[in-house]
Amino acid sequence: MKIAVFHPLNRRQAPGQCRLQSHPMSFSPINALSPLDGRYVAKLATLRPLMSEQGYMHRRVQVEIAWFIALSDAKFAEFKPLSPGARTYLLGLVKNFSEADACAIKTIEKTTNHDVKAVEYWIKSKFEARPELQAASEFVHFACTSEDINNTSQALQLKSSREQVVLPALDKVIDKLRQLAHAHADVPMLSRTHGQTASPTTVGKEIANVVVRLVNTREKIAGIKLMAKMNGAVGNFNAHLAAWPDFDWEAFSRHVIETPEPLGLGLTFQPYSIQIEPHDYMAELFDAVARTNTILIDLARDIWGYVSVGYFKQRLKEGEIGSSTMPHKVNPIDFENAEGNLGLANALLRHMSEKLPISRWQRDLTDSTVLRNMGVALGYAVLAYNSLCIGLNKLELNNEALADDLDNSWEVLAEPIQTVMRRYAVAGAYEKLKEVTRGKTVRPEDLHGLIRSLEIPDAAKERLLAMTPGSYVGMAAELAKRV
Length: 483
Known about the structure:
By secondary structure, the protein is mainly α. The protein is 57% helix and 5% strand. The longest helix has 38 residues. The N terminus is likely disordered.
């Protein structure tokens, strides 16, 4: 599989065509610098059209066209409303934007050395043989600074990526975890606090804990308003008012930004900015994704541990090899892959959330190259979500290992026994149980002998005598089923 790449030294390509660069090694997934476009290229096919350079250009074309059509409806004497045919044609440029179109813009950029201006010239080139559009061509990019186009395009990229890729991938993880929480709600499991045996829980309840956390952060990701500004070079509508001093440019800009697609952009209007949109919403969004990823790192490590101690087995896949030298191994590679990629995603997301809201004076260019890595950060996150789903779907509960662990941990019943003793005012309850259990191997008969010697009601004794580590799970099952 070879991927065509534009290179400025290629002077002979036809319009709209990107040729392989003149280099001893042509670009393909096998020699990609990033594993997102190499080893994992097929796994990110849904994100690539949205967050790639082509996706960025596509959104720039969309913003320019939306602004142009809106200007035609503003009742300016110099720009009459566009005909239905012209509108359909312009919206078609957005709807049908292709890789060939993106390559044609890159060809123009060789001359302009300015990517936004190349988009403007490409749009104007599409007006040829259309007198109505040619007559209005100077209203393409009218009164706009590059950042009016860029910030809105980036918001649109994030909008489509969030709706079409990130949240659906995260929802698959949440849905699978919810299924597991319900399926294993009643299966008792030994807890370990500080790595030591502790009051039992159920497998389903521990998974339910993660579901609740993820649902909360998922709502935060989905609820963040994606902001956009279209207010000129330094945020004051300077050029706009120079052209039409009496026109309400702020209301017009808000209308373009907040009107739903395709005639508008379907974003939230940012009324105050310097040359660039402040990027505070981006920081909020990236922080929310990073917090979600941190929860999933916690999950991946816990499941890795449960696989290690035998609570979970992993379904075998024909032909897979766990080790090049140890034939018996079935490694928890999906959870390890997820943990590694979540860490990479968070490193980028946190850098972006800290850096992007900072700009010297009315703007500097340090945000530009960072913003081009939004897709990389989200790509690592989505890759991890997919790995988690694969891993979760392979898990099989090892009921025997769970039961054995509980049966070897009768010391955990020291807690309920001393708590009942306290209810009936038995002096030194905690200390008596500590003497019997702390640091010792505890057998059922050790506890039963103590229980029978207690001066507590017979009903309480019988309840304690009937208790086992596997039955001492409190509300765990109910909580798991409720999630």
